[in-house]
Design brief:
Helix content: 25-40%
Shape: globular
Strand content: 15-25%
Oligomer: single chain
Mean pLDDT: 85
Largest sheet: 7 strands, mixed
Number of helices: 16
Length: 578
């Protein structure tokens, strides 16, 4: 080490320097510098070190330095040292992943206190940057400030609060049941972080579908690379510029860009990928993940049906369906995609929904503050093309200059109609007449499994039959959308609508490795004799007894506890009442 103008110069290793960086330094502070960081800080990690001490570690090239009355530190990196920054072949995406993995390897994301601190920072971001978040959502989706809080940030704040409250319990070792063979052993499940998680968000609810998985990743002790949807240009920019001002930018980098950047990210190795979007891209994500044997959580949507029973409260059912369908201009992955009902009530359903559209969005939805817009012109044209072979019963107005499509109801829709061939993801609600519940179940089962099935009925037997005879990610009776807000229920699809789940503890478990742990005492060898050669019928008999015919220890424990309770009660009664 030698003095330099305004501070100290640290020469790491022999040879000349190919790169030099200057960092601010305050007297009396010690810290850790890493030469292969894009933006180094001597205070990334406070580590006590004696004045003047250098410590070089091969590979990552760290050194400790104690500042003594200097204003800056100049770091000279030897020409023989290769850095990520100077490697022209390393993409921005690859660099972000490498940094996240390197930061994870330090272990700083694992302590519960650190996870909670990051989660609190994320909550602070949602509160302090509400105006920037709302302004971006207004530009991208024409969503109001109240709407962005109601449908996105409020749920995120609630999720963070739930996770912080329960994290210690979720991360603790989980005891498991024993049998006669393992009676003297210690058995438990230990949740541990997976590593580096990739979160690929969607544009329809850009904050909720991106940050819900991020909350789970942080809670589980992982690093996470966040890729917001490029379709929401302004929201993506806010996320990139502001999120890392609150979170550890090495552990939780935000990578923006389009298809090319996403493809580059998918070339990297991750320990889990969470993707929200359509099934076509979902297949691409899964194919890329398979090259590294990376597990995936895919939330893919689909055509979620809604059956309205003719004997239910039709006005109330229509009110809730109308709200669920046209919220966010129909751009909701769990929106009712189409309605199934008997032909005898179709006209009444249309009339009731028409009243609700007027109540919710006035006679002029186009000028109403809480009615959104289609995200871009491509989706605008795609949605309008779906109406070409169907009869419009309500709405149908559009304006391509604003990507506006009015709340629209289509009647007498057939299975072969254009609007029934793919997820609508827009403000069109087809009504498909069926013969009754049996016809509805047959129609549902002919299609792909959806993210949710809605049913409106006061008949519990009807609801249970629909649940038993169909398959979907979820079932919601007598309402729409609200199951998404319940953290005690897993949110996810099945089959074509996705795989895996998240929310609350399900996010934590999904993004953790549930490690089986068994600790045996180095004694009691007599019990093990049945497993050693020579294998005899007698040993087989003992093995059968211990593994197959053994009594239920859990039941015996409960009976024993009950017996003790009865005995104690008898003693008390005898002592004080007799």
């Amino acid at each position: 080490m030698g003095p330099a103008e305004g501070g100290l110069t640290a020469f790491l290793g022999p040879g000349g320097a190919s790169e030099a960086k200057v960092f601010p330094c305050e007297a009396g502070e010690a810290g850790l510098l890493s030469s292969n960081q894009d933006v180094c800080s001597p205070f990334l990690c406070t580590v006590p070190s004696p004045p003047g001490r250098q410590e070089v570690r091969r590979g990552t090239l760290h050194f400790f330095l104690h500042c003594e009355a200097v204003s800056q530190i100049e770091l000279r990196i030897p020409s023989s040292t290769s850095t990520s920054r100077s490697n022209p072949r390393m993409s921005r995406e690859q660099l972000a992943v490498e940094r996240a993995r390197r930061a994870f390897s330090t272990g700083r994301s694992k302590p519960l206190a650190y996870r909670i601190r990051q989660l609190n920072n994320l909550r602070r971001f949602l509160v302090e940057r509400q105006s920037e978040i709302a302004e971006a959502a207004k530009k991208d989706l024409n969503r109001s400030e109240v709407g962005i809080q109601l449908f996105e940030t409020l749920g995120l704040e609630s999720e963070i609060q739930l996770v912080i409250k329960n994290l210690k319990k979720w991360a603790a070792p989980r005891a498991v049941e024993k049998n006669l063979v393992t009676l003297s052993d210690t058995l438990y499940i230990q949740p541990e972080p997976l590593g580096v998680v990739l979160v690929i968000g969607a544009w329809n609810y850009p904050w909720a579908v991106t940050l819900f998985p991020l909350i789970g990743a942080i809670a589980a002790g992982n690093a996470a690379v966040v890729k917001p949807s490029e379709v929401c240009v302004h929201t993506s920019k806010v996320m990139e510029e502001l999120l890392n001002a609150y979170l550890d930018k090495e552990l939780y980098p935000v990578v923006t860009g389009g298809v090319q950047e996403t493809q580059e990210l998918l070339k990297q190795r991750f320990d889990h990928i969470v993707y929200t979007g359509n099934s076509m891209v979902g297949r691409i994500v899964m194919e890329a993940a398979a090259k590294h044997l990376t597990p995936v959580t895919l939330e893919l949507g689909g055509k979620s049906p809604c059956y309205i029973d003719k004997d239910c409260d039709i006005p109330l059912a229509c009110r809730r369906v109308t709200w669920g369908k046209f919220t966010n201009c129909g751009q909701t992955c769990i929106a009712p995609d189409y309605v199934l009902c008997e032909a005898s009530i179709q006209d009444r359903v249309i009339d009731e929904m028409k009243k609700c559209i007027k109540e919710f969005y006035t006679d002029d939805p186009k000028s109403f503050l809480d009615y959104g817009r289609i995200i871009n012109e491509r989706h605008f044209r795609r949605i309008l093309a779906m109406t070409e072979d169907s009869t419009v019963a309500v709405g149908g107005e559009s304006d391509h200059t604003e990507c506006y499509i009015a709340p629209t109801i289509l009647r007498d829709v057939k299975a072969g109609s254009k609007v029934m061939q793919e997820e609508i993801f827009g403000p069109l609600l087809p009504i498909v007449p069926v013969s009754g519940l049996e016809g509805a179940i047959d129609f549902i089962n002919q299609g792909e499994k959806s993210l949710v099935i809605y049913v409106f009925s006061t008949d519990k037997k009807l609801i249970n039959r629909l649940i038993e005879e169909t398959s979907s990610g979820a079932v919601l009776a007598n309402d729409c959308l609200v199951h998404y807000s319940v953290s005690s229920l897993p949110f996810g699809g099945v089959g074509n609508s996705g795989m895996g789940c998240y929310h609350g503890k399900f996010s934590f478990d999904q993004l953790s490795h549930l490690r089986s742990c068994m600790v045996r005492p180095l004694k009691n060898e007599g019990m093990n004799s049945m497993r050693y050669p020579p294998h005899t019928p007698g040993k087989l008999g003992w093995a059968r007894f211990f593994l197959v015919q053994a009594p239920d220890l859990a039941l015996m424990g409960r009976v024993g506890a009950l017996a003790v309770l009865v005995a104690v009660a008898g003693i008390l009664i005898n002592a004080y009442l007799l």
